[in-house]
Amino acid sequence: MLHSMSFLNISKVAVGCASFDTLKRRQQKRLTNGIVPIVTRFRPKRADELVGGSIYWIIKHRIAARQAILGFDEADDRRTVIRLDPRLVPVRALPKRAHQGWRYLEPADAPQDFDASDEAMAELPAALIVKLSALALI
């Protein structure tokens, strides 16, 4: 099923992350008061449309995971804080070229989450699902 059917999403390169697990560890280190804050220089012009959508993380030229966008704040230095849900959701990998900053991602273009009700997928270890997805094999 597609996530965020009526919300706008963004994609962003997970700079320096070679795998889903690396991104997950990085996000766990950032976790504060139930959110994962991501600091960026500029507030997206369409920020109101993004609340309730997701940030889709690009790892090795593939969208591999997403996190729900909970809202936006302003940091003391006037930069923007994107507040993310701490749950990192693996998605069915979708090839995506690297880019700087973020790019808007319409709901119809967002990759699907893995469906936990899929019996064949449920039997695979989570780490294997992530690796197969990163290779765009599932």
Shape: globular
How do the helices and strands follow one another from N- to C-terminus?
Answer: EHEHEEEEEHH
Strand content: 25-35%
As an assembly, this protein is single chain
- Could you describe the largest sheet, including whether it forms a barrel? 7 strands, mixed
Computed CA radius of gyration, to the nearest angstrom: 15 Å
**From the helix content, strand content and strand pairing, which structural class follows?**
alpha+beta
Can you walk through the features of this model?
The structure is a single chain. This protein is α+β, with helices and mostly antiparallel strands and 138 residues long. The chain contains 4 helices and 7 strands; from the N terminus they run E-H-E-H-E-E-E-E-E-H-H. Strands 1, 2, 3, 4, 5, 6 and 7 form a 7-stranded mixed β-sheet that branches. A hairpin with a 5-residue loop joins strand 4 and strand 5. The longest helix has 11 residues. The chain is globular, with a radius of gyration of 15 Å. 26% of the residues are buried.
Features:
4 helices; seven-stranded mixed β-sheet; alpha+beta; globular; 7 strands; 33% strand; 138 residues
Architecture blueprint of SSEs:
Layout (H helix, E strand, L loop, with lengths): L8 E5 L6 H11 L5 E5 L6 H4 L3 E6 L2 E13 L5 E5 L4 E7 L6 E4 L13 H4 L3 H9 L4
Parallel strand pairs: 1-3
Antiparallel strand pairs: 1-7, 2-5, 3-4, 4-5, 4-6
In short:
20% of the residues lie in helices and 33% in strands. It has helices at residues 20-30, 47-50, 119-122, 126-134; strands spanning 9-13, 36-40, 54-59, 62-74, 80-84, 89-95, 102-105.
